Amino acid sequence: MQIVVAQDILKANDQIAQRNLERLDAAGVYCINVLGSPGAGKTTLLEALAPHLSGQLRFAVIEGDPATTRDADRIEALGVPNVQINTGGGCHLDANMVVSALDNLKLESLDLLFIENVGNLICPSGYRLGERLRAVILSVAEGDDKVAKYPPMFQRVDALVVNKLDLLPYLEYDLGKVKSDVKRVAPDVHMMTLSAKTGEGVANLADWIVGKRQEYLHVRGS
Ligand code: MG
Ligand code: ZN
Predict the structure, then answer these.
(1) Closest-lying ligand to the alpha carbon of 36?
(2) DSSP of 170-196, one letter per residue?
């Protein structure tokens, strides 16, 4: 019997992720890995960001899903270049899946790439894909205990976007409790609140992303 240790799989994944990163760097493409539960509003947020980003940055989206092209269809409808990865039921994207998705994008004509991961708060955060930034989307409809319950996810991301603020009046959701959990569990995370549906706070996020890409270009030296 052969036993493949999870550590070895992750190490192999990291090597491929590093090659993806180098390939994206060579083309000057800043890549953001978008994580979060099913229904957190990842695709809706990308739709809401699109009008704020277009005209400033040329961007594309890689959509990861266990089945269907529904999310990619929504991105296609915006006229944004996109590639669908169907994981065949798999619960996360890995770096190897992203290799062939990158083959299908014109990287030289892009500034920014979003990779929408499979909806899941556990394993996707263990797999680097080639991203420079990781953002987790958390909707208030999921309850205010998620940061406390799934610490590794929040410790492995750069940004936390709390979505569906428009639903707050209908829920028992303690945003203060979430903020103190973040402070305790993942103090370095940049936290933002917004509603992709009403658009409240979306421009702020777009500005933040544009600023992050500027920083990246400086560090990269171009
Ligand atoms: Mg989606
Ligand atoms: Zn998984």
Answers:
(1) 1
(2) GS---HHHHHHHHHHH-TT-EEEE--T
